[in-house]
Amino acid sequence: MPLEYHKNNTENWDMLIPVLEEHGTWFHDFIEHLFYFSDMPEIQVPQKPTSFAQWVVHANRDKTMQMEIVEKLNALHADLFKMSDMLSAQVKETGRKPEHKQFMSFMTVYEEFMIFVRRLEKDILTEGSGFDSFTGLRHKAMLTTDVKRELDRLARQGKNFCLSLARIDNFVMLQKNTKPDELTAYIKLVADLVKLSIRSFDDAYHMGNGEFTLCLKQTDVTGGISALERLRRELERQKITFRNDDGHEVPLSMSCCIAEPVQGDDVITLLSDLRDDLQTAEELKTDTVLKYHELSPLQRFVKDGGGATTQ
User: How far is it between the farthest Cα atoms of the chain?
Assistant: First the structure.
């Protein structure tokens, strides 16, 4: 069985190589199409690569590959070509190069797709899977490596990112008053809501004990807060409840805080500071308080309070 597993991993890795090669070639041709369309009308829209679709077919048949991985990468790939089609149509209609903001959005998605594929290559050859089979989120064992990569990219390219810690409120009470299978259902439901709240190239991790970490890439605190607001709206829409110690149905809520790391920050320290901030916010026991402050080199946003919202 181990030999077969290794064989499947090797096949998955082999099939990812042409994905990187074809998309790299396509990207360069597509850039030429965007910026030199009016000067050189003979430049055609480059044909989209087919290697990724072939990999998806193979991955869907491979029982060692988690479907959450395929779904996430497939969503990111769809976003990439949706944006490329939009840019191509605009260039054809106007005869002018794309606006800088739209082009940079496309660049972000392309870069994240390529990073995701390279990261998946490494996962396949080392861990076998970088995703948690329990929640479908990125495995917590990969968090330190992933965040270090973002810190390195921040140092090299100046591309900001945010790190957020979100916790189910009264988790000890939830554990106490629910059966093990019911608790599992709650955690999986929250994980699904987290996945709905982040973009295709963001990462989220289930840390255990009702905690989730979100790595929100290529954005500042304002953009990171938008993801938390989406999570709040999803929680409100679901109207999730559980029984408290008195046997009454109470709404499930979450508390969260967010940090925008700066060059030189340490992953362990970042997570420790987020937990300290969250603990401080919970001890305040105030309702719907938005608190924004700067501590050390970190910029943080903390929201806490009651109700069926993220806090």
Answer: 74
CA-CA distance, 212 to 261, in Å (whole number)? Answer: 18
Over the stretch 87-129, which tens digit does the pLDDT of each residue have?
Answer: 999 888 888 888 898 999 999 999 999 988 888 877 765 555 5
Rg (CA), the chain: 22
Strands 289-295 and 241-243: unpaired
Dump pLDDT digits (tens) for 210-225: 999 999 998 998 888 8
Closest CA to 109 of 138, 157, 136, 73: 73
Sequence-separated (6 or more) residues with CB below 8 Å from residue 253: 168, 169, 235, 306, 307, 308, 309, 310, 311
Would you say 135 and 187 are in contact if contact means Cβ atoms under 8 Å apart?
A: yes
Judge whether 173 and 244 are in contact, CB under 8 Å.
yes
Is the residue at 310 inside a domain?
no
Q: Which domain holds residue 290?
A: 159-304
Q: Is residue 141 part of a domain?
A: no
Structure tokens, 173: 């009470």
Report the SS3 class of residue 30. helix
What's the domain count of the chain? Answer: 2
Burial of residue 73 (CB within 10 Å: 0-12, 13-18, 19+) is buried
Whose CA is closest to 150, among 3, 65, 300, 260?
Answer: 260
